[in-house]
Amino acid sequence: MDTAPPRDSAELTYRDAAEADVPALVALIESAYRGESSRAGWTSEADILGGQRTDPQGVREVITAAGSRLMIVERDGEPVACCQLEHRGDAAYFGMFAVRPDLQGAGLGRRIIAEAERSARETWGVAEMHMTVISVREDLIAWYERRGYRRTGRMTPFPYGDERFGIPRRDDLAFELLVKDLA
Fold it and tell me: Helices (DSSP H) in 21-151: which residue ranges?
């Protein structure tokens, strides 16, 4: 008889990323969003964007910026997820969220975003969490809506021509601001 706990109930640990974590974090983020490996999960952007999702410099900037944290989520000492939290006045920004593709769909994302919201509220006393999502990612936006986020209709153009954000496979990309009340 198998007595191992279900995959989604194993102990998770949360900590702030350090410089030494950059290579593992870049690999984790890339695996969740780009290329064939990302197709094992449901958050892949491979059909709408090619190229990179991030690079060592971008991850390092999040780790070292004032008022910013890159939270690593580990299971048995191995990184399984990460997210960026940035203090922006009365709100926190949530970004760079990645869950290892083979672990997606097991409830980890729900647990991690709840911990990120709790941490931002307790650390910075913020009333809202903000994020931007590519507006054509209806399945992802619906997932966030089920977690209490609301669409604002406020759009920011996709940075076409800046390959640091990927190589677009379509010409209708924009970022939509999603907001959740944390009070």
Answer: 22-33, 56-64, 108-124, 138-146
Helices (H), the chain: 22-33, 56-64, 108-124, 138-146
Per-residue pLDDT reduced to its tens digit, 14-52:
999 999 999 999 999 988 887 677 777 777 787 898 888
The pair of three-digit structure tokens given for residue 72, joined into one six-digit string: 């690593």
Cα 98 from Cα 84, distance rounded (Å): 10
CB 58 within 8 A of CB 94: no
pTM flag (> 0.70): yes
Beta bridge partners of 49: 168
CA separation, residue 71 to residues 9, 82, 120, 126, 160 (Å): 19, 5, 11, 17, 28
Torsion of CA 146, 150, 155, 159, to 10 degrees: -40
**DSSP state, 167?**
E
Residue 89: other Cβ atoms inside 10 A: 10
